[in-house]
Amino acid sequence: MTASSQPDVSRPDGEQADGGLVNLHEKLAGLLASRGQWREAYDHLRSALDLIYQDGDGHVPAVPEQLRREVDRLRREHAEAHEQSIRDSLTASYNRRYLDQRLMAMLAEQTGTLAVALVDLDWFKQVNDRYGHLVGDRVLQQVVELLQVELPEPAFCARYGGEEFVLVLPDTDQASAIAIAEAARDRVERHDWSAMAPGLRVTVSAGVAHEVGGSCENGAEHQLLQADSLLYSAKQSGRNAVAYREDGRVRLAGPAAARRSIADVRVAEHY
Questions:
Q1: Which of 24, 41, 51, 260 is exposed most, by the fewest CB atoms within 10 A?
Q2: Which structural domain, as residue segments, surrounds residue 132?
Q3: Could you tell me if 124 and 249 lie in one domain?
Q4: Same domain, 79 and 101
Q5: Domain harbouring 228, CATH code
Q6: Which GO CC annotations does the UniProt entry carry (predicted)?
Q7: Strand 242-246 and strand 204-212: pairing?
Q8: Are 26 and 50 within one domain?
Q9: How far is CA 156 from CA 45, 116, 191, 207, 215, in A?
């Protein structure tokens, strides 16, 4: 028997088999990752690591550098894929899926206060009709940037649908929530929209619903309905306003508070 044909006796048969399984798991992980099947890819990489760390003597072998790099790459790609799955593709704000999940979790865990401001662009259809959908898309993107200015942690902005957005404000009292929404409304109104398109003007209306921990028996849907009704009141009261309820009455924040006619739309009336 020649030297080249002699079997490798430096490693036990079981170790050679384990090495083959490690290689197989690595290849399967790479294939699954290329298809976007991140969870399955992770499972195979975990199996590969388990085999590498199995040793009857209790010795922990070094993890191959290639496997380390593969694990790091898959982690990064998985994180990126997850981030994309919870973001709105146009505005990069959080999407409705993330909003629903986080709002329900917050309400379930909430012991302090939670406010939501439902924000809608005024006359947005006219913007699309007059300036085109490309300009309309840019308007949505800019509005999101303006809504998120100085938004306190852990508050966030999410796209509710179409030209509607939600500001979720945990641990925020009613006065602060109203002030945040009114400041956002004012920023949108004062923004130089003519730089985007001559004659363009954009305003928003908002409804702010505030809950104390444990007081919202019907959960996220109830609070969003309250905010939606207040948004509708702001629209019916002349638009470009922030509406909220105090002592059972609908009020408007900022300069709009001086308006003579303020609509009071109840949830049952709106739906």
A1: 260
A2: 96-256
A3: yes
A4: no
A5: 3.30.70.270
A6: plasma membrane
A7: parallel
A8: yes
A9: 34, 10, 21, 16, 22
Q: How open is the CA angle 151-126-165, to the nearest 5 degrees?
A: 25
DSSP secondary structure letters along 18-40: HHHHHHHHHHHHHHHHHTT-HHH
pLDDT at site 132 = 98
pTM: 0.74
Number of other CB atoms surrounding residue 189 within 10 Å? 17
| pLDDT tens-digit series, residues 143-173 | 999 999 989 999 999 999 999 999 999 999 9
Q: Which residues are catalytic?
A: 163
Tokens standing for 186? 């004012």
Structure tokens at 228: 């939606």
253-263: string of b/e by CB count within 10 Å (b at 16+)?
A: bbebeeeeebe
pLDDT in tens, 104-151: 888 777 667 899 999 999 999 999 999 999 999 999 999 999 999 989
